[in-house]
Design goal:
Structural class: alpha/beta
Distance between the termini: 85 Å
Shape: globular
Largest sheet: 7 strands, mixed
Number of strands: 15
Order of helices and strands: HHEHEHEHEEHEHEHEHEEHEEHEEHE
Number of helices: 12
Oligomer: single chain
Strand order of the largest sheet: 12-10-9-8-6-7-15
Length: about 350
């Protein structure tokens, strides 16, 4: 009798929907952040992407993050620890995380890794980045309509940063041929006191408008204090610079991150490289400040639409060609740079005051 009862229960467990349709456990996704999570900036935008994943896949994903992780050995340790914890996909959004990510990925072939701003891939490592320079060019148009002398606070002279400086300068000079951009490199991504000092120094040298490629909002705050103008980066920063902000170049990671987590869920994840911009919705300009005339706002938005439609390219020679700041032709007339040339950019266009270390 007991044998028959046990067999019946076992059969019920097999046949009952309650047992046969158990939901799959949530995918575990982890994120590593190079700086502290603050109200605005690089890390904030990636965390907004993480939250977008949770919102798009309720109950199907469990996310976590580790903030303020230095590039190098610390990053390798943290990434390895997250893999050991059972995360199935790990996002590492900082250029200096590329090599540590690749190293750890070799040890965990069943874990998927997303090297954001890296360029090397592996069977379980994908690379992705955004065409930040497209937003820089558009912001340069707005800045050029309102100022002639600009200052630019930057972390490192890597191609991604150089692209942005050149695009911003080209945007300014497309509407203001006399515009110039003075550059200061800090040798680090996140150091608010040094970012502020650099901004103050540039304003003391005559900068009327500031741009930056660092991790905090310190440049915006400095411009607000001094009554100058500034272009926000990563996030809309009108909260701390309501009078200074000209426009914001914002990064949109939610859609990409959600698609990659979904791919892990359904088994379709593949390695590869993605480089998306305005057309793909990864970059946009928004958040015009109160000092920007409506006519200028519309001009920039029109250019953004043209860029999204593939009708406006940033690095093109036009009729006259483009020279670097040492007088050499770097984009011949009628030619445009291909992606390989843009990704290897190691020169500044005419109008930039500064040098790229070669």
């Amino acid at each position: 009798m007991y044998k028959n009862l046990a067999a019946a229960l076992a059969a019920a467990c097999v046949l009952s929907p309650a047992f046969s349709q158990q939901p799959a456990p949530p995918v575990r996704a982890a994120f590593v952040y190079v700086a502290p999570l603050t109200d605005a900036g690089w890390v904030r935008q990636h965390d907004q992407g993480r939250l977008a994943v949770e919102a798009a896949l309720p109950g199907q994903v469990k996310t976590s993050f580790v903030e303020n992780v230095a590039e190098g050995p610390d990053a390798e340790r943290v990434i390895r620890d997250l893999a050991m914890q059972g995360n199935q996909i790990i996002f590492t959004p900082s250029f200096g995380y590329m090599e540590p990510t690749l190293k750890v990925a070799r040890e965990f072939p069943n874990v998927k890794f997303e090297s954001v701003t890296g360029y090397k891939t592996a069977p379980n490592v994908a690379a992705s980045n955004a065409r930040y320079y497209e937003g820089r060019y558009l912001a340069g148009i707005a800045a050029g309509r309102m100022a002639t002398e600009a200052g630019y606070v930057a972390g490192f002279p890597i191609p991604e940063v150089v692209q942005g400086i050149n695009a911003f300068t080209l945007g300014m000079r497309s509407v203001n041929p006399k515009a110039s951009v003075r550059v200061v490199f800090l040798g680090e991504w996140f150091n608010p006191p040094r970012e502020r000092d650099a901004a103050m120094s540039l304003m003391n040298q005559g900068a009327e408008v500031l741009a930056f490629h660092t991790g905090s909002n310190a440049v915006m705050v400095a411009a607000q204090e001094r009554g100058k103008l500034a272009v926000a980066y990563h996030s809309d920063m009108r909260k701390v610079a309501p009078d200074a902000q000209v426009v914001a170049v914002t990064h949109q990671w939610g859609d990409y991150y959600t698609r990659r987590v979904k791919a892990v869920m359904d088994g379709s994840w593949k390695s590869g490289s993605v480089w998306g911009g305005v057309r793909e919705g990864m970059i946009r300009v928004e958040g015009f400040g109160s000092k920007v005339p409506p006519k200028v706002q519309q001009e920039v938005l029109d250019r953004q639409k043209a860029m999204a439609a593939g009708k406006l390219a940033v690095f093109t020679g036009g009729k006259a060609g483009v020279k670097d700041n040492e007088g050499r032709t770097v984009i011949p007339p009628g030619r445009s740079l291909d992606d390989a040339a843009i990704l290897g950019m190691n020169w500044f266009v005419s109008g930039v005051i500064g040098q790229v270390s070669r």
